[in-house]
Automatic annotation (TrEMBL):
CDD domains: DNA2_N-like, SF1_C_Upf1. Residues 29-62, 389-421, 500-523 are annotated as: Disordered. Its EC number is 3.6.4.12. Residues 936-1148 form the DNA2/NAM7 helicase-like C-terminal domain. Residues 508-523 have a biased composition (Basic and acidic residues). This is DNA replication ATP-dependent helicase/nuclease DNA2. It comes from Jaapia argillacea MUCL 33604.
């Protein structure tokens, strides 16, 4: 393939953009590039920037917080720490390096000009730490170019002097900054001082915002694009995304070239990991990658067969064997030529890759405010040799040799003995496409050297780029000026993100203390301006998103700029009200996102002990090296990209003694594993098992103790770390396991929102959801008749047997809907039954159905109703259940892809994923207090039903709760509109088959048999009761910011054990609490009762039980009950899960202070349904119901199984609802009631 060559104009444009904003003193030192920033389009005269509607004109750049009159460079050069002059720095070397940033398959590989040698500092081979001094500071005062800051760790005041290009950094009061470099005493001040100049030290603005190296390397062309890509993340959409490799994902997220490139990446990484480069091995890897489920899925998406895919990948992989022969080994070979971008023509370098450290290593750097995922991290040996002469080749040309001298192809260099040989760590990046983005690749690789240096603690002064098409390896040295410019770009981008929506702290001078409404347009702006280049913008993959934000959020009026036509094309269809809708909801999503960002930075701003006190970390953990995962568990993972390795951690002896159950972390939660203070997020994954003393995690990377020991100074001197020996080093490695705040979902939610507003988006739903256009309905006769559609009538008749009038009306309403219909059903009214019937009718009519809800339990309950038990046989239609299989109910896991035989062909995979008419999955949701108050508490159901009540069908006859339990919700919530569907339901009671066993057990206790509180609760006549714990007493306690009640948990345990002794089966009992910590406590007590479901209120939806026991937890002298107890939607869901018996444990004195709960107690008092427990009630049945203590032996704790609150318990088959005759009822005009009804399903 002929090389792609960049013109000098293209090269200059890239470097000009990269160094845009630097002061004149820098550019005065060399003639190129020009200090005047050129237009982005060489052929277009740029018009004046458009303005917002609010302001007739706006400045070209944001008003910086540090600004003085421009000082001529000559004057500045006389000062200390002045900008470098040509005599201070080898500018020829710098300029030559920049000039060599050309096409990697063209002249760069064959330098034609003779260049003079320069002296370079070689990478250090010292194993000592090379970590730069990093000081985290908060800006307290700003005067001219001096910042007075407070060092976070030492709390002392210091001075930061910004000079040269750094002077333009937009820093504001209260901003967090990192200084990279040492502070020293100042002659004119008592404060320690650091000078940030072009020649020394660095400043990182908003270091907690970790930007990817790819985003920064692509930013010189447009600062706006990478920020928008971060905000709006798409999987399968018309708006592509950009991954951390800098690859633009077009169309539906895939293209053939991208798929082949990804597969080739994986093949080469497999070769590196196994050290095998033979043709047979490479072919085997290709077949495995293409034939995997993930590989076949990609082929289905791009419409390519397996044979063609194998052929394409083999064609691209034909250079891998040669790569292994030339570059893999302990000593560099003559043919292992390393192209050096800093070479002066008299030097050649040879490369040997001695050892692979890791692949796909995700590294966080809160020091530099960077993150990145490296293709490979390698140990390299580099020899630098001087070229002495050239001689003719005696044989045919060696096509595998990369040694090129001038234009001659039949001459080979004579090399002098090696002048240097260096062992070094290096990032190794694999580039499978044409090298048209070579300039960005180098910038990206330079930043990766910073990341790798911080992770490994060794000097990393250059990176490696391997281009599979040209089969050349390029060495990218890290240069101070380029890194400084890239950090400047990063700071500018972080400045926009850190500024947020204009809600930051006070700004400088006259702007200090202004509110959002008073701030100027530049202060409110959180995205850079558009570059206004018609050609570039027209080809950009985020143009739809960019123009949408410009219109709806930034409110730009533009009829004259070069992109005015594009702007009109993309946004001309939007009305002002539609723009306001997008702006409002986008801001609410951002509020939700802020919490995730805040928690994320705790990983490096808080120690393990402090974060564990808050329930978001396990500290003082050591790796159990004797743990061996069972083989059958490995098989269940199949092709998981995250769960690659399984490890067990236990508490360090002599360390923290608190239970691991005390915190926000539960089974299934995302985590990362770190070693304090420098090795952050070594591995990521999720919790597999959790007990009070140990945690089993599944992670994406191997935890290599030898490398970690070396990095933290626990490696014996003399151990061969480069050779991979384990060493005899001792020392106990102490890990921390942190809850990982994954907020990528917010970008997906934004993407879903944005698609309503795109010019090629879903116009009909835009009108329905945003404009509230009335829904359309067909005319359907609800009763089958000759005039009705025969096929529809037959389907209705087939699946409507047993439905009451309300339910049949709901079915007809849905079938008549052209847009949407809303079914408003109170608890127990048969929503699951009617939904299942409607789905069956739709499938019978040849329709496909997407079934979704916010919770796994709700989705799986409906699937259970549709499919019945597995032993019942084939359900008659296909179902595909998507999602994390660990969170899918065991009864319906047979519908997941994981439960099926792995597909080996595209046809098989297409059959598995395309033929099922029913696809079931959960949808994303957000839940932030401020966001709810801003409007996110208004559900889509409520918005549509209030606007168009004619689209709503009511269900009022319930078939779940007996009359006593129904009375609670009916009086407190539903205004007596709820009705029992039959007399049988109304009189329902829980009968204990072995009641005598419970009664006889009292002979062994200190309580009286007749008036025993436990005996009263077991009575058939006790159907709804509040158990008051005030006299026991049972006080709540705090574990960090979590709330629990140990005595109340023990009481719940005793009631559950009594029910089980009386003959009630485990799957008839449900235990609910609003508090996650209480769920874990009770789950630990009932560890042997695996079929007793222990759930939060949210996860209990659809999980009806004969007996429900609720633990209210809150009991204190201050009357503190928290927001959860005040949330009556959750309370209503909890109450209405019970069919025959509802037992509520709590403190009346604490709970009755809330108005609605006060009404609850008045009702319970009036019915005589309050039972006051005597003092020490939890100790009365200790001889019979053991485990009155939370303590237990290590042997017992090893067997503990905690039921996750977000995973419904296993074992209970889902039973069918009883049906009966219905009466009509309405809930119109009661919007809050409607939401409560919907949430109570």
């Amino acid at each position: 393939m002929p090389p792609t060559t960049h013109t000098k104009q293209e090269e200059d444009a890239f470097m000009t953009d990269l160094f845009a904003g630097l002061n004149d003193s820098f550019f005065d030192s060399c003639p190129e590039p020009s200090p005047v920033r050129p237009s982005h389009s060489a052929s277009t005269t740029r018009a004046a920037k458009p303005t917002t509607q609010a302001t007739p004109s706006k400045p070209k750049i944001a008003k910086p917080m540090l600004r003085v009159a421009k000082t001529p460079s000559k004057a500045l050069s006389k000062k200390a720490n002045a900008p470098c002059k040509e005599e201070d720095v080898d500018m020829a070397f710098l300029a030559d390096g920049l000039a060599s940033w050309d096409d990697m398959e063209g002249d760069l590989m064959t330098p034609k000009k003779e260049k003079k040698a320069v002296t370079r500092m070689l990478p250090s081979t010292s194993s000592d730490s090379v970590r730069e001094t990093c000081t985290r500071c908060i800006v307290d005062q700003i005067e001219e170019k001096a910042l007075t800051v407070i060092a976070v760790e030492t709390k002392d005041r210091r001075t930061v002097i910004l000079e040269d290009d750094w002077y333009r950094t937009d820093i504001r009061l209260g901003d967090v900054i990192n200084t990279i470099g040492p502070f020293s005493p100042a002659s004119t001040s008592s404060l320690l001082t650091i000078h940030i100049t072009n020649n020394s030290n660095l400043l990182i603005h908003h270091p907690d915002i970790l930007l990817t190296a790819t985003a920064i390397s692509n930013a010189p062309k447009c600062r706006r694009k990478p920020l928008l890509t971060n905000l709006v993340r798409s999987i399968f959409s018309s708006t592509p995304t950009i991954d951390d490799k800098g690859v633009e994902r077009k169309g539906d997220g895939s293209s053939p070239a991208l798929v082949w490139g990804n597969m080739l990446h994986e093949v080469m990484q497999s070769c590196l990991k196994e050290g095998k480069w033979e043709d047979d091995w490479i072919d085997k890897c290709i077949m495995e990658k293409v034939g995997s489920v993930n590989g076949l899925g990609e082929l289905v998406r791009i419409g390519v067969g397996v044979e063609e895919a194998v052929r394409e990948v083999k064609e691209r992989a034909k250079g891998l064997k040669g790569f292994g022969e030339r570059y893999v080994g302990d000593v560099p070979k003559e043919v292992g030529v390393l192209v050096n971008t800093r070479s002066k023509g008299v030097e050649n370098s040879m490369l040997a890759i001695r050892k692979l450290e890791d692949v796909e290593e995700d590294i966080l750097s809160p020091s530099y405010g960077l993150r990145g995922k490296l293709d490979a991290s390698v140990q390299a040996v580099i020899q630098d040799r001087n070229v002495v002469s050239t001689t003719k080749k005696s044989g045919p040309a060696n096509k595998n040799s990369n040694v090129k001298l001038g234009a001659s192809s039949n001459r080979t260099p004579t090399l002098a003995p090696p002048t240097t040989q260096t062992h070094t760590l290096a990032p190794f990046e694999i580039k499978t496409g044409r090298s048209i983005a070579g300039l960005e690749h180098r910038a990206q690789t330079m930043l990766y050297t910073l990341l790798m240096e911080e992770r490994y603690g060794e000097k990393v002064e250059s990176g490696l780029l391997y281009y599979t098409q040209s089969e050349e390896v390029v060495r990218v040295p890290r240069a101070r000026n380029e890194v400084r410019a890239l950090i400047g770009v990063r700071n500018e981008m972080a400045g926009f993100l850190g500024r947020g929506r204009g809600k930051g702290k006070g700004q400088l001078g006259e702007d200090k203390g202004k509110g959002k409404e008073e701030m100027g347009e530049e202060e409110k702006r959180f995205l850079p301006e558009t570059i206004d280049d018609e050609w570039v913008c027209g080809k950009c993959y985020v143009v739809d998103t960019c123009m949408l934000y410009r219109k709806a959020v930034e409110n730009v009026f533009d009829d004259s700029s070069p992109i005015a036509n594009i702007y009109a094309l993309k946004t001309g269809h939007l009305t002002p009200s539609q723009g306001e809708f997008f702006k409002k909801w986008e801001e609410l999503i951002s509020i939700e996102e802020q919490d995730a960002v805040r928690f994320k930075k705790e990983l490096w701003t808080m120690g393990a002990k402090e974060r564990e006190d808050r329930g978001r970390c396990f500290g003082d953990m050591v790796l159990d090296e004797g743990f061996v995962e069972r083989e059958e568990e490995k098989e269940t993972r199949r092709e998981s990209k995250i769960h690659q390795f399984t490890y067990r951690f236990v508490r360090r002896r002599g360390g923290e003694e608190g239970s691991l159950l005390n915190g926000h972390m539960s089974c299934g939660d995302a985590i990362n594993v770190s070693v304090e203070p420098d090795l952050l997020a070594l591995a990521r994954g999720f919790i597999v098992e959790l007990t009070p003393t140990e945690v089993v995690v599944g992670v994406d990377h191997e935890i290599r103790l030898e490398m970690i020991r070396k990095r933290v100074g626990l490696w014996d001197e003399g151990d061969d770390i480069f050779g991979g020996g384990r060493g005899k080093g001792g020392g106990e490695l102490v890990f921390r396991i942190d809850k990982d705040e994954m907020f990528a979902g917010m970008g997906r939610i934004r993407d879903n929102l944005a698609h309503l507003f795109y010019a090629q988006g879903d116009t009909r739903r835009l009108h329905l959801v945003v404009d509230l256009a009335p829904p359309r309905f067909f005319d359907i006769d609800p009763s089958p008749s000759p005039s009705s559609d025969c096929e529809t009538s037959a389907a209705i008749a087939k699946f409507s047997k047993g439905l009451n009038g309300d339910q049949l009306g709901a079915m007809n309403k849905v079938l008549a809907a052209q847009d949407y219909a809303c079914i408003l059903g109170m608890p127990g009214t048969g929503k699951t039954t009617v939904i299942a019937a409607i789905i069956k009718v739709l499938v019978e009519l040849g329709k496909s159905v997407l079934l979704t809800s916010y919770t796994h339990s709700a989705v799986d309950t409906i699937l259970g109703k549709l499919a019945g038990k597995e032993e019942d046989g084939d359900v008659g239609f296909g179902i595909l259940r998507l999602g994390n299989v660990d969170k899918v109910h065991p009864d319906v896991r047979r519908f997941t892809l994981e439960a099926r035989k792995p597909a080996t062909t595209i046809q098989q995979l297409e059959h598995q994923i395309m033929t099922p008419p029913i696809v079931a999955t959960t949808c994303l949701s957000i839940d932030h207090t401020s966001a709810r108050k801003g409007g996110l508490d208004v559900s889509l159901f409520r918005r549509l039903s209030e606007a168009h009540p004619e689209a709503v069908v009511d269900l009022t006859h319930q078939y779940r709760m007996n009359a006593d339990i129904m009375l609670l919700s009916n009086k407190l919530i539903y205004g007596d509109r709820l009705r029992c569907g039959s007399e049988e339901v109304r009189r329902r009671a829980l009968v204990l088959p072995e009641r005598r066993v419970v009664e006889d057990s009292h002979a062994q206790t200190a309580c009286g048999k007749d008036d025993c509180w436990l005996n009263q609760l077991m009575s058939e006549s006790c159907k709804a009761v509040f158990v008051d714990t005030d006299l026991v007493p049972a006080r709540d306690s705090r574990i960090g910011d979590l709330v629990q009640n140990e005595i109340e948990a023990n009481l719940v345990y005793q009631v559950t054990e009594a029910l089980l002794k009386g003959g009630v089966s485990q799957d008839q009992i449900g235990i609910i609490s609003l508090y996650r910590q209480q769920i874990k406590l009770i789950g630990n007590l009932l560890k042997e009762r695996k079929e007793v479901e222990i759930l939060t209120a949210d996860k209990s939806q659809g999980r009806d039980k004969d007996c429900v026991v609720i633990s209210m937890v809150r009991s204190n002298d201050d009357g503190q009950i928290g927001d959860l107890v005040r949330d009556w939607r959750r309370m209503n869901v909890s109450f209405t899960r019970a069919k025959s018996k509802l037992i509520i444990f709590g403190s009346r004195s604490t709970l009755q202070a809330t108005p609605l709960l006060s009404q609850f107690f008045q009702l319970m008092d009036g019915q005589g349904w309050i039972l006051r427990l005597p003092a020490n009630a939890h100790e009365m049945h200790a001889p019979v119901l053991r485990k009155t203590s939370m303590k237990r032996s290590v042997e017992e704790l090893d067997k503990v199984v905690v039921l996750k609150e977000n995973v419904v318990g296993s074992g209970r088959p889902m039973k069918k609802m009883k049906k009966g005759k219905a009466e009509e009822g309405l809930l119109k005009g009661r919007p809050i009631l409607k939401d409560l009804v919907n949430d109570g399903r």
